Amino acid sequence: MENSVFLVDLPRLAEGVQQSKNDLTFFGQELLYFCEAMGLDKDIRDGVLKFDFANTSHLAFVHTVGGSHYSNNMKRTGIVGLSRAVRALNLQTQDPVETDFAASSIGSLNMDFLESIYLAASGADLPVEKREVDIKDRFRIYFPTHDTVAASTGGIQNGGTVCFQSKWYNSDRFPKTLFRDYQSTRTGLLSHNKILFSRSQKQAWAYVGSANISESAWGKAFFDKAKKAWKINCRNWECGVLIIVPPEELEAQPGKVVGTEVFKGHVECPFKYPAEKYAGRKPWFFMEREERSAFAALAGEP
Predict the structure, then answer these.
(1) Position 302 confidence tier, pLDDT thresholds 50, 70, 90
(2) pLDDT exceeds cutoff 70 at 151
(3) Which of 127, 169, 176, 210 gets the most CB atoms within 10 Å of its CB?
(4) d(C-alpha 58, C-alpha 188), whole Å
(5) What is the mean pLDDT of residues 61-79?
(6) By C-alpha distance, which of 32, 97, 42 is closest to 65?
């Protein structure tokens, strides 16, 4: 099993020196907001202010805070927070965007939700801004087929943390045509990555974090008629980092930003690209009775 980790080295400020919250970069402010939302102790939150965040000016911290949120809090978290982070780094675009999302857990997906992810990746001012988009040739989701899991180094007994139920996949509204077989560039490994690659002719960035591609992870924004205000409901707590490709690297290859090669040296693509369509093969299903029984048998349990 493979996964991705983000590390950044931030120098500690001089003894006795502490920044104010407003002095932090966008990354630092959102990290501190997330710490506050989690209810971390004040000494921990104060400790965040004792570091120099200048090294994160080209990054964004993206999070999902569990619960219901209105107004400014709604704008900072979940899918709405993602679109805000894209704009904060001046990555918004009206151009077509190529979007590739590697996930380790798949739920009940539909085109409406995926179009919202696509708009957030374009930097649309969600939830207010709406555009007509056609994502069928520009959005791909990477999740392994049953054959890929069976052929992995650990075999099917190693697939218990890669989750999908056939009832979602067999739904009439499920976007099957967007799915691709996740095959690691390191032969035999399965993936627990949650990575989103987004690029157009003028911008490219990657999200690396904990959020799978689901409404539970990114939230659902809607207009609350009772309170006459926009609201986002989030089930999960998630966080991740938005990492950009310097614009000058894109300018050096005009018209060629179509694959994941543009991210080389910034966020290495861990799966084979371009990837194979399912083409009649079934995805890996786990979390159903037959899979649980199979795992129990492999473990020697009754």
Answers:
(1) very low
(2) yes
(3) 127
(4) 34
(5) 97
(6) 32
Tell if the pTM clears 0.85, that is, is over it: yes
Report pLDDT digits (tens) over 89-145: 999 999 999 999 999 999 999 999 999 999 999 999 999 998 899 999 999 999 999
- Identify the residue whose tokens are 């964004």: 60
Catalytic residue (choose from 58, 69, 146, 192): 192
Q: What is the CATH number of the domain that holds 73?
A: 3.30.870.10
In a domain, 204, yes or no: yes
In a domain, 155, yes or no: yes
Q: Provide the domain limits for residue 157.
A: 60-298
Is residue 266 flagged as an active site residue?
no
**Position 80 in a domain:** yes
With the C-alpha atoms ordered 129, 133, 135, 139, is the resulting torsion angle positive or negative? negative
d(CA 101, CA 104) in angstroms, rounded, equals: 10
Q: What pLDDT was estimated at residue 250?
A: 84
Q: CA distances (Å), 17 to each of 20, 47, 49, 51, 88, in order?
A: 10, 11, 9, 9, 27
Residues 6+ apart with CB under 8 A from 78: 64, 65, 69, 218, 219, 221, 232, 234
Provide the percentage of residues in the chain whose pLDDT is more than 70: 93
CA 137 to chain centre: 19
DSSP assignment, residue 104? S
pLDDT for residue 140:
97
Handedness of CA 130, 135, 139, 143 (dihedral sign): positive
What residues contact 271, with CB distance under 8 A and at least 6 apart?
102, 142, 182, 183, 184, 185, 191, 193
Q: What is the mean pLDDT of residues 48-66?
A: 97
Determine the 3-state secondary structure of 262 from DSSP.
Answer: helix
Query: Which residues participate in the annotated binding site for substrate?
Result: 194
Number of domains in the chain: 1
Annotated binding site: 194
